[in-house]
Amino acid sequence: MNSIFGNIDDLYLFCQIIRDGSLLSACKSLGLPASTVSRRISAMEKRLNVRLLEKRGRELVATESGKRAYEQLISSMEQLESGIEQILQDSNEVFGNLKVTMPNNFYHGFVGDVISRFLENYPKVKLEIILSQEQQIPTTDRDLLMTFDLTGLESFIARPLFTARHGFFASQSYLEKHGEIATVEALKQADWIAVDKVWNINLYREQNLEHTIAIRPKLVVNDIAAVITAVEQGIGVSSLPLRHTFGNKKLVEILPEYTRADRTAYLVYRERQHQPRALTLLVDALLTAAKTIKYGTDAYHGGTKGN
Question: Which InterPro entries does the entry link to (predicted)?
Answer without folding.
Answer: LysR-type_TF_proteobact-type, LysR_HTH_N, LysR_subst-bd, WH-like_DNA-bd_sf, WH_DNA-bd_sf
